[in-house]
Inverse folding.
């Protein structure tokens, strides 16, 4: 063979090898389409151990350590005091711990750390504060039932070694979705829903809803209760509280107005449930845990954060507009909600102030002042149930706008009523 | 036998062999082209599994992928497009460089729109939808491939 022939043969050989490699890679070797089950023992709460068997999910979970703002400017996972942007918080929560420390939440891996370092937590804090911060609550509840709720937090939390992680939502033996918060299971039971029989699609929201919900501590037992017996919307939850369930009347008394106040807690699940996405069967996980691929293998992202950090994966699965267009749309909605939320918060602050001043008038009509206090209590509930929510209205924009509009109206009615009672013009 | 005859026979032999090879190549190409147009072939790529699964549940499952995704044009245009799209697919499939949910490009959208009209033009041709230069998929985007969600999710075994 001469050199020319050899070169030709070598070239041909290379082509065949490359072609064979491409064919093998594309048509023979295929990335796995299923996840291999590792049966972990009950009580295994260390996410790193789970990570050995579910590496893609664990790698994405670790991204929850990241502290980054949301591209819309609202939410995100940077720990900063909300009162910087919304100073009305200081007035409206005067006399209770949320006026001392009320920051944007960081990711799930920080749940225990941020609980224990919060200014709101004191030696008087009770075990129920731990309910949503660690999967270990499953063991505690099994052993003690709701007894743990009124024990000192500092004592109960000792056994909690891991923050919100794999076991908060997954059964270690089957990997099926599961809920660990007994308050959620009980609240659903009262609504006639057996969570154990829920479909996978429902569970993709229930696992989030078990904590991203409004709740209160029952006065005597300190157990966690969700106020859902009448429904999920702000009016229905308020009506539930008006009946003073188990003697629960208020979270605290605002010192200026002397009004008996309620503190709303992150009603993400309730807000979503009545919104267009919730009503259309789009689950929390669909947007907050979109599918991703690694070397072709599909897996759910466990980086649970603002979907606006990944519009492509979160929104564009259904929505055909460009990622920029979608982001702009969400920004517009959230800006609108924030403006009105701020307006409502300030109106409520003014009501507290005016009631305080009116109360100083010796001849003021007591019944009239009480009416004003009742109005500011409700006005603040309608503001707070929106302000405490994590989506800046996105989870249900029209309901949120309605709620804020009513808050503003009630706040000014409260001002008017107080002035009328005292004959003042504040 | 004269040398003239010999030469003639050689020529006939060469011609016959050429014709045979020609027919063989044509048959293989046509068969290959047809095979490569079957949904089974399209779905043999990992990246196409999800769109394949949604198509199988759709109201258009009786139509092959290429009936919507190849240009409604002559064979030359179709072969050229298929070569281009095929190379693009092969590149991304080999490198596993494809997103979790695939969305249609603007070129592919125009092609699919054209194929909608291939069957449905009599229904819509006198309406604003076509006269305004409409885009069928803009409204009917969930028709064949749904919302891109697979019921049941990723299985754990």
């Amino acid at each position: 063979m001469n050199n020319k022939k050899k070169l030709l043969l070598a070239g041909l050989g290379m082509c065949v090898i490359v072609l064979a490699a491409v064919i093998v890679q594309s048509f023979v070797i295929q990335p796995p389409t299923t996840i291999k089950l590792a049966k972990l023992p009950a009580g295994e709460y260390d996410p790193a151990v789970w990570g050995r068997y579910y590496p893609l999910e664990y790698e994405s979970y670790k991204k929850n350590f990241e502290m980054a703002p949301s591209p819309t400017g609202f939410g995100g996972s940077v720990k900063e005091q909300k009162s910087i942007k919304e100073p009305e918080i200081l007035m409206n929560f005067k006399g209770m711990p949320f006026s001392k420390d009320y920051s944007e939440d960081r990711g799930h891996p920080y749940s225990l750390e941020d609980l224990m370092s919060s200014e709101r937590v004191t030696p008087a804090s009770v075990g129920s504060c731990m309910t949503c911060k660690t999967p270990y609550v499953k063991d505690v509840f099994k052993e003690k039932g709701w007894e743990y709720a009124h024990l000192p937090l500092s004592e109960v939390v000792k056994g909690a070694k891991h923050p919100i992680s794999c076991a908060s939502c997954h059964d270690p033996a089957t990997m099926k979705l599961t809920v660990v918060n007994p308050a959620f299971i009980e609240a659903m039971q009262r609504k006639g829903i057996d969570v154990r029989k829920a479909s996978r699609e429902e569970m993709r929201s229930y696992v989030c809803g078990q904590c991203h919900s409004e709740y209160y501590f029952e006065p005597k037992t300190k157990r966690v209760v969700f106020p859902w017996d009448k429904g999920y919307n702000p009016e229905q939850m308020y009506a539930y509280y008006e009946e003073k369930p188990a003697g629960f009347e208020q979270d605290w008394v605002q010192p200026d107005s002397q009004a008996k106040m309620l503190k709303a807690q992150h009603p993400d699940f309730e807000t979503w449930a009545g919104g267009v996405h919730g009503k259309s069967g789009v689950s929390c996980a669909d947007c907050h845990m979109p599918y991703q691929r690694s070397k072709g293998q599909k897996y759910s992202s466990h980086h649970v954060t603002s979907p606006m950090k990944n519009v492509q994966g979160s929104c564009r699965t259904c929505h055909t507009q460009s990622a920029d267009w979608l982001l702009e749309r969400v920004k517009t909605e959230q800006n609108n909600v924030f403006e009105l939320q701020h307006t409502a918060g300030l109106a409520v602050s003014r009501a507290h102030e005016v009631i305080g001043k009116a109360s100083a008038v010796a001849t003021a009509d007591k019944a009239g002042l009480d009416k004003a206090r009742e109005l500011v209590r409700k006005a603040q509930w309608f503001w707070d149930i929106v302000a405490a929510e994590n989506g800046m209205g996105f989870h249900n924009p029209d309901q949120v706008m309605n709620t804020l509009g009513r808050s503003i109206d009630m706040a000014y009615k409260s001002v008017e009523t107080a002035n009328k009672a005292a004959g003042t013009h504040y | 036998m004269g040398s003239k005859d010999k030469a003639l026979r050689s020529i006939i032999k060469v011609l016959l062999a050429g014709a045979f090879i020609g027919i063989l190549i044509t048959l293989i190409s046509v068969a290959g082209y047809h095979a490569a147009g079957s949904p089974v072939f399209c779905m043999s790529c990992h990246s196409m599994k999800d769109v394949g699964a949604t198509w199988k549940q759709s109201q258009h499952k009786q139509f092959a992928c290429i009936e919507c995704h190849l240009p409604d044009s002559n064979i030359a245009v179709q072969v050229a497009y298929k070569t281009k799209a095929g190379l693009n697919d092969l590149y991304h499939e080999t490198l596993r460089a494809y997103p979790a949910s695939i969305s249609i490009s603007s070129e592919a959208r125009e092609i699919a729109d054209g194929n909608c009209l291939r069957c449905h033009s009599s229904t819509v041709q006198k309406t604003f939808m076509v006269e305004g230069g409409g885009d069928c998929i803009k409204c009917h985007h969930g028709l064949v491939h749904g919302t891109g969600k697979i019921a049941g999710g990723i299985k754990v075994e």
